[in-house]
Known about the structure:
The chain is globular. The longest helix is centred in the N-terminal third of the chain and has 19 residues, at about 70-90. The protein has 24 helices and 26 strands. Helix content is about 30%, strand content about 15%. It has four domains: about 1-55, Phosphorylase Kinase, domain 1 (2-Layer Sandwich), CATH 3.30.200.210; about 65-125 and about 340-450 and about 465-490, 3-Layer(aba) Sandwich (Rossmann fold), CATH 3.40.50.740; about 135-325, Dimethylsulfoxide Reductase, domain 2, CATH 3.40.228; about 580-695, Barwin-like endoglucanases (Beta Barrel), CATH 2.40.40. It is an alpha/beta fold. The model has no long low-confidence stretch (mean pLDDT about 95). α8 runs antiparallel to α11 (about 255-265). It starts with a strand and ends with a strand. The strands form six sheets. The chain has a seven-stranded mixed sheet with strand order 5-4-16-15-14-6-7, with helices on both faces. Strands 21-25-22-24-23-26 form a six-stranded mixed β-barrel. The structure holds iron/sulfur cluster. The site of iron/sulfur cluster has 14 residues, from α1 and α7. Its cofactor is Mo-bis(molybdopterin guanine dinucleotide); [4Fe-4S] cluster. This is Molybdopterin-dependent oxidoreductase. One of its GO terms (molecular function) is oxidoreductase activity. Belongs to the prokaryotic molybdopterin-containing oxidoreductase family. NasA/NapA/NarB subfamily.
Amino acid sequence: MSIETKTTCPYCGVGCGVIASVDDAGKVAVRGDPAHPANFGRLCSKGSALAETLDLDGRALYPQVRGERVTWDTALDMVAHTFAQTIATHGPDSVAFYVSGQLLTEDYYLANKLMKGFIGSGNIDTNSRLCMSSSVAGHRRAFGSDTVPGLYEDLELADLVVLVGSNLAWCHPVLYQRLAAAKAENPGMKVVVIDPRKTATSDIADLHLSVRPDGDVALFNGLLTYLADHGAIDRRFIADHANGFAEALAAARATSRQETLRLTGLAEEELDAFCEVFAASEKVVTCYSQGVNQSSIGTDKVNAIINCHLATGRIGRPGMGPFSLTGQPNAMGGREVGGLANMLAAHMSIEDAADRDRVKRFWCSPTIADRPGLKAVDMFRAVATGQIKALWIMSTNPVVSMPDADAVRDAIASCPFVVVSDIQEDTDTARLAHVLLPATGWGEKSGTVTNSERRISRQRAFLPGPGEARPDWWQIAEVGRRMGFSCFDHAAPASIFAEHAALSAFENDGRRDFDIGACAEMSPADYDCLQPFQWPRQKGRAMSETRFFADGRFYHPDGRARFIATSVAAPRRVSADFPLILNTGRVRDHWHTMTRTAKSARLSAHLAEPFAEIHPDDARSLGIQDADLVRLESATGAHVIVRALLTRRQGPGSVFVPMHWTDETAACARVDALVPGITDPISGQPASKHVAVVARRL
Ligand code: SF4
């Protein structure tokens, strides 16, 4: 006999429902949940291999101080005392939390509450900064709120799905399966893939546009110009619901057609074919992901896309809208609780005095951060300069995943006090911890996550935590209590979720999009059996309102959306010394820095070692042959050594290297060491897909 538990996959932002079965011998089996509305039973390779990743090899099992086992009391007292002392001596901005889209919403909520409401600093940022912060900034500019308008079913209802900078087939595989199935059912449906690489996603594309890196703004501004010149603008929608169209169109027209072709690298027929199919299709969904967000003009890319949807009124209705796809399982949950340094809880604004006062009163907190904190890249720079003197890193491995990874490693190593909470004992980051706090992982902890379509689902424990590992929310609550703060007396995640829900509804008269007030009085029993649902879920209202902007009402104070005049001015960073553009990204069967997926032999077998995809013409001119070992070096002086993979799927002039491998899993393969800390000036998101490098055969 086995016991079954419904939970959610911990990998990507699709947020698939999973049924985990544990038999009498303790053996775990995993299958897709047919009732979950994200996946209807489907799982991808990573999700279906979850049971193979649950062994305890390498797990952190007890608290440690400088590598020595200690009791929880000793470790927590040391963390609380050192943070309190540092704040008393150097002020609240001398400490920081760096957290993760892997945290559950309840963990995230308490970390944000402790830092912003009780310590009184905005210095909490998250690895989601590297993933989707440009989308957040673009949404806020256009809509007045960080709102993802649509639903997954919109991809199935569309006449045209445009995928920009998104390898859906590998990075959101089950959503790709849903799209492929819909296209097979409806041969009239068109798919356009816009990506410098011809990825697996291109296999279902009617049109693949191998746009130049960072050519996206020029492309969508060219589309806006085409729509205006061909009578495809919805002038009634604009008049009723949006401001700034004339300025956005003037900015788009500032780039000539010839310049658009040069910036995009497209042939005239390709540009025209895209514009024609977009103009002719009534129902259009434009999905975008890291290829859009991870850019020094990422926010403008997002707004250039949204401009085209606003201009045609294709938003808020079935089968149409711009759609940001989040990378991590709970990037959306982090946004909801204010896990970014420039946001406040429940989608309130840290720059708004009334919002700050509202949150402070709700928390009954002694203080509230009065300005945005340091975003991820700036946070680690502040660690390097000594401005940050105590740092708590939760559930992430920045020594591998941050840009300028070597400088980040050196900064953490020089920090007077570093706390790391992780499930693994010996990550590149955990090795630098003064205090290591063992965390429970997937299958051992309970809480909620929110997927890319705003659907909140439960993660449920079905295994005991190993050794002395404890959930992140418990660790944060214990430190908060030991720092002398009240309001951290939660005994279980249910009460944290209820508090989060109550805050979302607190003095919310409909001017804020995020409202799950119907969950505020939920009992622990109700929380246990909470079914997946999409927000909003307001108290006293039916749950039918799942697609935003259907009424043409946006969240700027005047209720209207904003067109944004965007700039095509992407920096050209290549030179004779560094002639190739490095694009970093994911592979199908690994996740982040492989702490889980490397445990599965079949996942590791897909692509067994790190590689660089190089176009054969570039390889020929560099004297590189297929399977050669090559050294890629950037202007930072950092380098990786990887296997050359010659393929015409890669555009000429650029190379692709996956981001998963560490120096532990393959010698000299931390590709983020090559990525400089250049960021989008609005979102602070690093430009991880546009790095000038040189390649040499070893
Ligand atoms: Fe998990 Fe994403 Fe695969 Fe779904 S698509 S099973 S959420 S990795």
